[in-house]
Design goal:
Layout (H helix, E strand, L loop, with lengths): L30 H20 L1 H9 L13 H20 L9 H10 L4 H28 L8 H22 L5 H15 L5 H9 L6 H33 L13 H9 L1
Length: about 270
């Protein structure tokens, strides 16, 4: 049996160009209009060669179930918090030095001497807690609404992996200031990981980057926090969004499905 392929959603009427009126002079007149036409021409040139507008319409213009409410925005809020962490992390990495002798001093320099450094550092520090809270709320909503059931089981598994990666990113980032509190708290966390069955001791040695907790541990945590985890989270998040757009979202459990009158008459007559 051939698989039915849905057509690309049409362009909404609000985005279609208005018809020309007779007697009116058309074409760019002011520098701002010239700039707008140049931008539209560039976008059209790119779209003609990539056909990205079809993919954008497929992602953005789709049907949503009746009863959708603010609980469905928790996933978008989690994604926004990750983007905020990525942007602020880039600015912090411009001044941070992953060295056991200079890490704490670089954090002090960011907070006291860099323009808006304390603000950016605060956004990154408290934004990590907000991301953890949002991802727990998002997964709780998914569980209690039954959105993990067929055919969305793979999306649920990806969400669980994203939760683990988020917690790992919070753990690895906690050591980076390399003060007394983060140092001893990280030692406790690594030792707890070492008590796990089978892979626990190997995981503990991997996080310490050796038998002892020292300068190489800080470099290992920094590499995991800045390079490994953000890339993995971004890739899984993109696949997660693709499955959401492909499979759609589920209606709230209290929303009952209704059938049309024509379908009811057809069932009765048959």
């Amino acid at each position: 049996m051939a698989k039915l392929k849905l057509p690309v959603p049409p362009i909404p009427p609000q985005l279609k160009p208005l018809p020309k009126r007779p007697g009116k002079v058309y074409g760019p007149q002011t520098p701002l209009e010239h700039a707008g036409e140049a931008a539209a021409t560039a976008v059209g040139w790119i779209d003609e060669r990539t056909s990205l507008s079809g993919a954008a319409r497929w992602m953005m213009f789709r049907k949503v179930p009746k009863g959708t409410n603010w609980f469905y925005t928790l996933g978008s809020a989690t994604m926004f918090s990750f983007l905020s962490q990525a942007v602020t992390g880039i600015f912090l990495a411009m001044y941070y030095v992953p060295s056991s002798t200079r890490a704490y001093e670089s954090i002090r320099y960011i907070n006291n001497d860099v323009f808006l450094g304390e603000f950016v550092h605060g956004m990154h520090k408290w934004g990590s807690s907000m991301m953890v809270i949002l991802i727990f709320l998002h997964m709780g909503r998914t569980f209690f609404f039954g959105a993990y059931k067929y055919p969305r089981e793979l999306n649920w598994v990806i969400g669980v992996v994203l939760l683990i990666l988020t917690m790992t990113m919070s753990f690895t980032g906690y050591l980076l200031p390399f003060d007394q509190r983060s140092y001893w708290a990280s030692i406790v966390g690594v030792n707890i990981n070492g008590t796990g069955p089978l892979v626990g001791p190997y995981l503990s040695d991997f996080l310490r980057a050796g038998p002892n907790f020292g300068a190489t541990t800080l470099s290992r945590f920094y590499a995991i926090h800045m390079l490994l985890l953000p890339g993995a989270i971004a890739a899984l998040m993109g696949f997660h969004l693709y499955l959401v757009a492909k499979l759609g979202t589920t209606a709230p459990p209290w929303q009952r499905a209704t059938s049309s009158e024509e379908l009811r008459e057809e069932q009765v007559s048959s």
